[in-house]
Amino acid sequence: MNKNILFEPYNLNGLELKNRVVMAPMTRCRSDNAETKATALTALYYRQRASAGLLITEGTYVNRMAVGSINVPAIYTKAQVQGWKLVTTAVHNEGGKIFAQLWHVGRLSHPDLLDGKHPLAPTALNPLADIFTAEGFKPSMEAKEMTLEDIQQTINDFKQAAINAMEAGFDGIEIHAANGYLLHQFFNLYSNKRQDKYGGSIENRARILLDILDEINGVMDSKRVGVRLNPSLHDMQGMMLDGESVEVHDYIVSKLNKYNLAYLHLTEPFTDVSKNPLAIQQVAKHYRSMFKGTLIINRKFDKELATQVLNDNEADLVAFGSPFIANPDLVERFRVNAPMNTPDPSTYYTPGAKGYTDYPTLHE
Predict the structure, then answer these.
(1) Which active-site residues does the annotation give?
(2) pTM
(3) What is the chain's Cα-based Rg?
(4) What is the mean pLDDT of each run of 10 residues along the chain (364 residues)?
(5) Which fold has domain 5-347?
(6) Which of 58, 143, 251, 306 could be bridged to 318 by S-S, CB 3.0 to 4.6 A?
């Protein structure tokens, strides 16, 4: 057992990371400005956490129709790119590395967030979810089925968002294809009832992600592109496992090998699926031999479990979510076995510094 493996440097397909700790993407809703752009406060938040080997930003919207919540920073306008430059500069000044997670929520939105338009999705269905609007949480509504033109525009917008991320100074991007959002909605038989080239067969349902990767591959080095998947998401975000959930994700992962990606970011089940025959029980183990590149795994880790996973070679990097909210110096606390600050959930999605940038470090 190598007790220090979590703190060892790691070569991420040519990008040198100072340790194997990854800060997972977490929506924090601090962009409460007219342009929904990252601000100096956003930059401070990420700078405080730059001791992680890799930071992955909260999901950032690739176009206007991608929006699924208030006060989330986007990346489709020049002002938004300038906002993210504050963040990347701050992180790089601390010697950190940071990827932008590119996000489209699909049907998990509301007309109040989309200038009165219904959300776009593979099929006109209602996810029956609660959506965070300026007037509080509201029930979701039936989505509008995307035309082929809508799909092509979305693919183009992911590509432009990748270009914008590079202009903003990010070290790379992560495509969010998990957690019941737009791309995941295409994969699933319950949310995708299409009969064209983006529906029906496993190959067709996976097509949109591969089309996006092909387009992005034309404008940036694929060694700086990651993909996030959540194969065993069930009974959350309006998503249910179907009889081909495993097969479609196996197909996707097999196809990802040809792109020479920065990494594949996987999430273990959010809910108890131990008795569900449609679920992959141990996601990292399932895909370890199937994916030929770097594997990041996320599942409510503590230091001991993360160390064990790395020593058992189930993954190369470990992503931590909520521990980073209250512990900006999480890596140092792990290193010296210091006690942890406790996060305040009431401030997870509220504007301002409280519960965002005011958690004390060990030195404070």
Answers:
(1) 181
(2) 0.98
(3) 19
(4) 97 98 98 98 98 98 98 98 98 98 98 98 97 95 98 98 98 98 98 98 98 98 98 94 98 98 96 94 96 96 97 98 98 98 96 98 92
(5) TIM Barrel (3.20.20)
(6) 306
